[in-house]
Specification:
This protein is an alpha+beta fold. It has a single domain, classed as Nuclear Transport Factor 2, Chain: A. The chain contains 3 helices and 6 strands; from the N terminus they run H-H-E-E-H-E-E-E-E. It is globular.
Length: about 130
C-alpha cells in the first residue's frame, strides 16, 4: 500500500490535506477528495461540492498551519477507515486566537489510479 503518508498509502489523503492546507492552495486541497465526497465541517451538517471547498477555504483563511497524525488505518480492499488526530493553533490573520483540535474518523477509497482520496472527511469524529 505504500509508505505512511504517501499518495499510495491509505493515510495519504491526510498528509496531502496537511501539505495543501499549509501551502495555502485550496485547489490542491480539493484534489484529496473524490468528486462526490462529503466533509462534515460542523457536526451533523455534511457538505459536498462547492460548499466543501468553501468550508476548507474558511479554515485555510486563518493562515495557520494544521498538523495531523494518523492514529489508525483499517483497510478492506479499496476502502479504508482512518482515525486521525489533528490540531490548528495560533493567532489567525485577523488577530483571533485559534485553538482547534480533534480526532477525525475518515473514509477513503483507492481509485483506479492507485491514489487514496476522501469519501467522507469527518474532522469531529464521533461528535
Amino acid at each position: 500500500p505504500g509508505a505512511p503518508g504517501a499518495p499510495g498509502a491509505p493515510d495519504g489523503p491526510a498528509a496531502g490535506f496537511v501539505a495543501a492546507m499549509n501551502a495555502g492552495d485550496p485547489q490542491a486541497i480539493d484534489h484529496v477528495y473524490e468528486d462526490g465526497a462529503v466533509l462534515v465541517p460542523v457536526p451533523g451538517h455534511p457538505v459536498t461540492g462547492p460548499a466543501r471547498l468553501a468550508a476548507n477555504q474558511h479554515l485555510q483563511s486563518f493562515g495557520l498551519p494544521i498538523e495531523a497524525r494518523p492514529r489508525h488505518s483499517y483497510v478492506a480492499g479499496d476502502i479504508a477507515l482512518l482515525i486521525v488526530d489533528w490540531s490548528m493553533r495560533g493567532t489567525a490573520r485577523d488577530g483571533t486566537e485559534i485553538d482547534m483540535s480533534g480526532t477525525a474518523t475518515d473514509v477513503v477509497r483507492r481509485g483506479p489510479d492507485g491514489r487514496w482520496r476522501y469519501v467522507i472527511d469527518n474532522p469531529h469524529g464521533t461528535a
